[in-house]
Amino acid sequence: MLLELAGTRTHVVVDGPRGPASGPPVVLNSGLAGNWFDWDAVTELLTVGRTVVRLDRPGYGLSDPWPDGAVPTLGSEVARLRDLLDALELESAVMVGHSMASFYVEAFAREHPARTAGAVILDGSVESSPRWVLPGDLRDELLLRSADVGAAVGMNRVGPAAHRMLGGATPPPEYADILKSDAYFKAAFLENGRYPVLARELAALRGRRELPPGIPTTVAAAYGGHRTPLSASWLKEQRGLADLLRARYAVISPSGHQAMVDQPAQVAALVLDTVS
After folding, report:
1. According to the UniProt entry, where is the signal peptide (predicted)?
2. 232: domain CATH number?
3. Is residue 54 assigned to a domain?
4. Could you give the count of Cα atoms lying within 13 Å of 30 in the half-sphere of its Cβ?
5. What are the start-end ranges of the H helices in 129-263?
6. pLDDT higher than threshold 80 for residue 169
7. What is each CA distance from 27 to 53, 61, 159, 201, 220, in whole angstroms?
8. Which pLDDT does position 182 carry in this prediction?
9. What is the CA radius of gyration of the chain?
10. What's the rounded Cα separation, in Å, for the pair 91 and 247?
């Protein structure tokens, strides 16, 4: 279905429980360049007893593109999740955020704790000291122009290869062209370009809004199974994020960054355990 969320027609997929409902609904948020179908295997496991909601941010999946001149902000994505719950008449839900979407899930929990039944950060982005960025108007104008130039010269053609390299799920055949579209390329380009800004917005929000201690939260790190300086550093960062959020810490292994694709059973179990 397409729902008007935060001013953009947003693709939403709702799968009801196949048996008696055993807990609050779950909202699955993909990371950078992620789509609803990346969660197919996790959804199949969760819907034994849960309602599962998946959404595509603007430009991804089957959602409308970003409106002209618009860029992702922390506020836009918190509003999108709030509007989603309102549209589906859900009082609250377990919010799951993969990678960069962890920013949005944490921000939502800080802004709307009563509507957050639980939070799961899945191999989330960690930015304790976000880097400096250009002033807003100049930065966004350059970013928007660069996205248009990239699409004009055909950079959207690398979408399928980039998705495979990131370890994403293979799209259903009828949706294979999503990864080649201008809208998909521009969405990923804009979100990646806005990454340091979103990180700074979250850091500022952390200073303004405490995360209530009553929200069950899990931070799960993906680990490939081979100890290296890089993997050790990443696990340390993820544990630090868990400490910051007063969250349970878990490791999903062996897994690449796309843990929902590599280890759907482990991911589903963590989601269910968070509010059990």
Report:
1. none
2. 3.40.50.1820
3. yes
4. 31
5. 136-152, 159-165, 182-193, 195-208, 229-244, 259-262
6. no
7. 5, 16, 25, 22, 16
8. 86
9. 18
10. 23
| pLDDT bucket at 181, cuts 50 / 70 / 90 | confident
- Express each pLDDT in 35-56 by its tens digit: 999 999 999 999 999 999 999 9
Q: How far apart are CA 140 and CA 143, in angstroms?
A: 5
The pTM is what?
0.91
Compute the distance between CA of residue 66 and CA of residue 147 in angstroms, rounded to an integer: 12
Residue 108 lies in a domain: yes
H or E stretch at 11: strand 8-15
Q: Which two tokens stand for residue 164?
A: 């495979």
Q: 255-275: per-residue pLDDT in tens?
A: 999 999 999 999 999 999 998
- Token digits of residue 201: 């917005």
- Predicted pLDDT at 266: 98
- The number of domains in the chain is 1
Going across the sheet that includes 26-29, the strands are 2-5, 8-15, 52-55, 26-29, 93-98, 116-122, 217-222, 248-252
The answer to whether residue 163 sits within a structural domain is no
CA distances from 82 to 75, 160, 161, 169 (A): 10, 31, 33, 27
C-beta separation of 121 from 246 below 8 A: no
* Residue 268 maps to a domain: yes
- The Cα 6–Cα 82 span in angstroms is 9
Please give the backbone phi and psi of residue 55, each rounded to the nearest 5 degrees, phi first. -135, 150
Range of the domain at 265: 2-130+195-274
pLDDT of residue 160 exceeding 60, the answer is yes
